[in-house]
Amino acid sequence: MLSALRTSVFTLGMAVLALPAHAFDTSARAAYVMDQTTGTVLLSKDADQPLPPASMSKLMTLYVAFEALRDGRLTLQETLPVSEHAMSYGGSTMFLNTQDRVTVEDLIRGIIVLSGNDACVVIAEALSPDGTEAGFARYMTQRAQQMGMNNSNFANSNGWPAAGHLMSVHDLAVLADRLITDFPEYYPLFAEEEFEFDGRAPSNKRNRNPLLRLNIGADGLKTGHTQEAGYGLVGSAKQGDRRVIFVLTGLDSTAQRAEEAESVVNWSFRNFVERTVATEEAPIAEAKLWMGEKKTVGLVPDGDLNVLFPVLGTQNIEAEVVYDGPINAPVAKGQKLAELVIKPEGLPEIRRPLFAAEDVPSGGFMVRMMTVGGIVLKDVINNPLESM
Fold first, then answer.
1. Which residues are the active-site residues?
2. Which of 141, 159, 166, 178 has its CA 20 to 30 A from that of 341?
3. The whole model's pTM is what?
C-alpha cells in the first residue's frame, strides 16, 4: 500500500466583517511583536537582521545568571568581588568599586533596574569558563545558538559598543519569551520601578522602562540605548489571559521610544481577539485508515486551539489538514497523525499537530478480505484488458 500526502481544506470560525487587517506602522529601525499566548507573530520588520542591541543584550547575561541560580552554581545571597575591569565601565552603573562584595540578588536587581554595566561584568566573571568577561561573552554566544538565536553574537556582557556585538529583534523576542517561561520566579523583578543600592546613585534608581507606570499591563523587560543602536526596548505586557512580547530598536529619542512602545501595546490588544476554534473533545477532521476496524479516525488538537482574529477582519479562517495517508491501523488515542495549517487573514500561517481522537484497532479477517477484494475489483475496472 502506497501512502500519499492527503489534505482537506475547510474554514474555521464564523464569517463576519470582511475588512483587511492592517499592520502597525512603526518608526523603529526593526521591530517584532508576538502574541505569546497563541504564538502568533503580529508584526515583523527586519526581524532577523543582526543589529547593535545596546543594553537589551543584558537580558542574555540575566538568562545565564538565572540558569546558574536554578542549577545551584549561584545563590541569591552569595557575595561576589568587583574587579578593576568591572569598575572600569562607564555609562549606567551601580558605582561599584574593588572594595565591594555584592550579593547576587543586588547585582541582578542592579542589572534590571539600573542597567548596571559594572554589575553585568561581576556576574560574567563569576560564571565565565575562563574567569574573563570575554570568555563569558563566548559562552553567551554558544548558549544563544543552542536556544535557536542564530543572529546573535556577543563581545561583552552588557551591550557596550563593540565590533561584532549584535542581536536581531527576533532573537531578543525569543530570549524574552524564554525568560518569562523558564523563570517565572524571577520574572517579577523586571516590574520593579526603583532600586536604591547603598545610596550611591540617587540619580540612577528608577527603571527606564517607560511603560511600567501606565497601567496597561506592562511588566518588563529592558531598555537600551547607544548612539549607534538608537533607542530600543524589549517589552512585555499582559491583559487578561493574553500576553504580548515586543521588541523595538533604532528609535530617535526616549520620548519616541515611550510613545511607540505604548502604541504597540495598545494596538496588539485592541486590534486582535482570541477565540477557541477547536477542542480536544470534538474532532476537527477525519483521517483515512488502512486495514482498520474503522475507515477513518477523528483528528483533534491536544488542548483548546486558540487563534487570534483581527477585530476588523474576517473571522472565517482558511485551514488545511495535512497527513501522510491512508494511515496504517492500528492507531492509538493521542497518536500524532496530522498537522493543521491555519491561515488567518493578514497574519502568518499557524501550524499545530493533530492527534487521534480514539483507539482504532486493526480490522479482522473480513475487513482484510474486503479491502483486498476492493483493490482487485478496482484494478479490473481500471485495467480490464490486463486482467484478462
1. 55, 58, 115
2. 178
3. 0.84
